[in-house]
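name: query_chain
kind: protein
chains: 1
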Amino acid sequence: MAVCRFAPSPTGRLHLGGARTALFNWAWARHSGGTFLLRIEDTDRQRSLPEHEEAIIAALDWLGLERDGPAVRQSERAALYQAAAERLVEEGKAYRCYATAAELDELRTAQERQGLKPQYDRRWRGRTDWPATGEYCLRFATPTEGDCAISDLIRGEVSVANKEFDDPVILRADGSATYNFAAVVDDGEMGITDVIRGEDHLTNTLRQVHIHRALGQEIPRFAHLPLILGRRLDENGEPATLESGEPAYERLSKRNMAVDVDHYRQMGIIAPAMVNYLAQLGWTQPGQEVYTPAELAAAFELGKVNKSAARFDLERLQWINQQHLRALPPAEVAELAGIETSAEAIEIGMEKARTLTELREELSWLQPPEGLDATLQGQLGDDNREAFAALVQRLEKLEEFSQGAIKQAIKDCCKEHGLKFPRLGMPLRVALTGKTKSPDVALVASILESNICCERLRSVSKIGK
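structure:
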């Protein structure tokens, strides 16, 4: 049984990459019958904001990624990190570094001038001649011989020579823990067995393995997810292409749709569809395109996550959303969209709508139209004005206000006045919906029902000159 965690920093809202990471951790935990935990990594005191934490938790709740237990906050665990760091110092696995910012800047400049990789030169490692006063940080004594290797659940064997690493700071001069150190201490204390995160953390992972070993902790299994790419845009904001004519992609950013999850909820994507699509950004279930979160958890396997980068496709997301909406009872779709109407109207709207926003647009004719005079006037002329007035009167007197009866009333008026159907159907459509395009006008009128339909017709301020 896997113990997984999602560990966001509340320096912003939950974006697509973070949401996918949370989802894969949740799915793997549920698939194995394990535990899914939430850790808020809020050690960045200046950028971490309560409203961002609230937004992240709200997004996770909306997605349905329920957690096992309350959130853990790093800002409340300083004593734990302090104790772990001091133990490493006592065991000779970490040390005090009194190097000043100016000294480190000078070192970096000299290394860059020589074409060397900028890194700390371990000048305080092994020393005990600590000054009586002065600020210092604690650095981890990284092994300098051999290699650091992991067996990644997605990428396989990954190994880097230890000489490539310097000695990272684990406690800053103000006593606060750095990311890599706090994460390792927390993973050990929380019993995390599987760490699933983006491939951009791969270097961090190797650093953390050293710290796990130094603390005597069991090293978790690691899985590094592929990047998510979005369409590259040109200077005009249009999708760019390669010389071959193929679409050009780049790492997902705010410029190419890497906005927060709430953006997609606001545009009318429903949570099960978002979960479905996020899962497909790196993982697929053979022979199945649309599935529920429960089906995802049952089938999900980390070993089947792709190594190659995933490509975000808004149209694909909208298509999946449409399939999920169509699978719901019309009453539930109406409730999600905040629309009070019949099942028949919802089914009409879903013929084209892919999102709740588009559904509301498709069914905008359910609301009374505004500013009709000019539009309606353009549909009326000397040939059909009198016939339209007669049609309104005929509709008001209909005993059965059905689609068939309404259509027949239009046909009868057209026949009496020598008109073709559109010459009465179109002004009727405009009077009822405010638009020149809508579903079948007789169907629209029947859904609106007699009292609303006739009220709208009577409310038209003028159908003449």
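note: The radius of gyration is 32 Å.
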